[in-house]
Amino acid sequence: MVQISISLLFFALAWLVPVRLAAQEPFKIIVPFSPIGGSTVPFWIATDERLFQKYGLEVTPLFVGGSSAIVQSMAAKQFDIGLIGGGGVVLNRFAGGDLITIGAHGGILTSDCYAKPEIKTVGELKGKTVAVTRFGTTTHFSALAMLRLANMRPNDVAFVQAGGVAESLAALLSKKADCAILGYPSN
How far is CA 167 from CA 65, 129, 133, 162, 175, in A? Predict the structure, then answer.
């Protein structure tokens, strides 16, 4: 859904860096991210091409399964910044939190629903299980949007928190869930 773009990530990280001389040590920061998938490719390109170092930053990526876990860590002041979906930030604000979204490189949901072969329509999911990474994540919000478009309510299905996109796929393939909300490359 909403994630920090690389250019805006540079801006945000630069804001966190005090004015320094080029010869000084780089500003070190850990950036938790989720998911491992196509939506985080720009972050990996910047990391692999050492683009952060050009701006005096030493960025250490840290995978955390699900943006809701990252939001909790940021609210607890464990991290200053995170690469996450926007839904978790919205929920944080609704609960009185102070997290903000700095930018996004996509304005659409990029998750799809994959179901067992016998399920042909969203309406046929009534009473079935839907695997999402965690509550409050992009996959959860994608599932809620899908249900709403089919005139269904969240309590028409049973949500299973799988912990990650790969785990959601495993839940579907092992028949522990009737469908799974997946992002690329898992889909």
Answer: 10, 14, 8, 5, 12
